[in-house]
Amino acid sequence: MSWFSRLRNHARSNAVSQEIDREMSFHLGERVDELVARGMTREDAEREARRRFGNPTYQKERTRERDVFDWVDTMTGDLRYALRSLRSTPAFALVAVLSLALGIGANTAIFSILNAVLLKSLPVSHPDELVAVTRIEHGDSFTNPLWEAVRNHQDVFSGAFAFGDDKFNLTAGGEARRVKGTYVSGDFFSTLGVTTLLGRPIVKGDDARGCPGVAVLSYGYWNDAYNADPNVVGHTVPLNTHPFTIIGVTKPEFFGVSVGDRPQIYVPLCSEAVVYGASSSLDDRSTWFLQVIGRLKAGVTLAQVNARLGALSPAIDSETAPIGGSAKRLSAYLGVKVAAEPAARGFSDLRTTYKKGLYILMTIVALVLFVACANVINLLLARAAVRQREMAVRLALGAGRARLARQMLTESLLLSSAGTLLGGLFAVWGARAFVALLSRSNHVISLDLGIDGRVLAFSIAVCVITGALFGLVPAWRAGRVDPQLAMKAQGRGVADGRLFATKSLVVGQVALSLALITCAGLLLASWRNLATIDPGFRRDHVLLVSADIANTETPSDLRSALFAQALERLRAIPSVLAAAAAQITPVSGSGWNNRVKADGFEPSVDKEAMSWQNAVSQGYFDALGVRRIAGRDFDATDIRTSPPVAIVDESMAKKYFHTPNAVGKRFQVGGGTWGPPIEVIGVVADTKYASLRDSAPSIIYYPVTQQPADAQQLAFVIRTKGPAVDAIPAVKAAIAEVKPTATLDIIPLERQLSESLALPRAIGAMSGVFGGLAVLLAAIGLYGLMAYSVARRRNEIGVRIALGAGKSRIVRMVLGDVGRIVTIGVVIGLAISFSARKLVVGFLYGIAANDIRTLVGSAGLLCGIALLAAALPTWRATSLDPVATLRED
Question: I need a surface site. Which of 39, 253, 548, 712 has the fewest CB within 10 A?
Fold first, then answer.
């Protein structure tokens, strides 16, 4: 019989059995008729026919084995029996499945994020052929002239393209409405092998100097902004007030080549000049805003590509060297070689930012899963003790010990499968929640969290491994049951007379739980320290407004006056206490630095000479509440034609001038070519700059009135009387009076500081959730152990009470077991915490990895929860009726 027919017979098991019965009856009937024809009576013939036929049950089983796959039949039977068994104990099944669902779901959630960020290839044709073009030891950023030189000289790629991210504004004035955009060179889509859902992609003919604006929409943006209008091709979309004709819509699976940063609109690289006009960077040899990817030619290896690019590097560098600058810098530029590296997974800032954090979370959830598995093992061991008579009966009836072990493993795998399916729902929610924690209002992270082959394989592997892990011990125990002892009236508890394995598992749960909540405590404390740190300025009642006039026709010589007029209008708002202008707002992630030279300061390396810088107006320090230490603020005399001046912070004064009062000191900034001397007119307190994790950056503040007059963007720092958001309508109206077409980005300072803590907040929150989950599972395990222990010792406790033992003695006896288990677990957990502290030290701020208060607090919390878990079993032990207990025998 073919394998297909044998497999099909499993779906008609009863029909197969009936057919075998009919066939056996037919053969017996034929033999009876033959014997009767030879002269035997029918009764003797039937008896002789059955004798010659043999054992009918055995013959039926042999025949069935030929008609079906025996192992499938056996497995199906095991599954049916396991389902009936679990259905008969719903409380046990529910607790076991929920424990596994939480553990497996947490692992799947973090792995799906890790897979999307670190492992998954781009959704393009043959991603393994893609390579990223880089500048050795100088990163992967390119200027447009450098990209064009690479494109024109290379002969090792079948296609190559450049791309650069930007944000486009859809409004013509007022508060901005930004969309994520990407400039792409003409071969972007063709090199990737990506086609469009509607219309056509950008092609080489669209990317030529002086090009009109065309755009390709992403599927998500088309669906959200245009309600999936099938007639969208040919419409226009205003990007920074410039109309771009929509020529296509990408397919839903394509998210670009930057993981986590899904563009909404693609435009040709040449249209950067359309968006920025005279400020375009297409010919600028010092604006590094592009990244380059190439596709290897057939038969060309990466080593050959690097050899060829290295040979082409001198010609490429000489064509694109920055104009001006020192001879030293020019020499350094000309010495850089172009190279290539694999880019199947695309580019991603998330990898460098979140890679270590994801590995830490993956370790945490793996430990949570171990705790969950230990819980289920304890539950199964307790359940196995109840089922000893069942196992004994099956052994006595001829079942092999391997057969019993297989049945127990089947039940375990069924539990793990149910936990995996339920955990998948938790994983979807958990992964999305974690990504939402990482996102900010001005940067929403978008990841492809769909289930692919890798995530599916991970889930199946976790399901099988966990099922085997917590199923092996009960299966081994089932095979060791002595049927004679277990079937005796007093056989209850014979096979599980020792609880060493169960107690060891609970000790392990306590130890791992302590390590996890200690880790969570450190990360949460670090997040709290960052969230409550004194940044050197007041964060409350401050509104940050970035005004952009790049889309206006304001002449460059009038822009400074326009910003000054807007500042005066803001100061006149009744709800505004103070207002000032700044090029860079606090903790925005942006930065501007330069080398500094001062008399008496000799840096050992170039990096030591770098100082952060900013340009601000009069009143900036008052608006932020920054303490002035010495000197004066900027005033109306500090103009472009007056001698250059600056205000420095304490760290700058001490580092370069070796004194906290540097008023009157002079310094120069620049590099190979130093600028004119700048006089220090004031010293202010240290403040945070680009990040709240900054130790104490040295900052130089220049007056905006001495900066170039052609700036197109400036930020305003506004201190309000009430909540900052209440002043937004008045602020928008005041700026509109000066320049209605100015584009505004508005955010309260408190929110900007909060969003800068996205990573420590997400890591701390998730570790806290998983640590709490581990403690909950450990408490359930401890409760189960103590409840089972009290149930086993009912007779002993009844005898003790009958002999006069008081409740306090019973409490000490029960809690003594708890104390020993928890004490051993805490000691082991502390050792694990000390040895694993290096994993989280890079994420800590303001707290040591071996902080005693956190360790003691975590141990105290765990002990308190352990006492709560043991409270009910202890109460039951003290409430036993000795007479009723002794009658149970």
Answer: 39
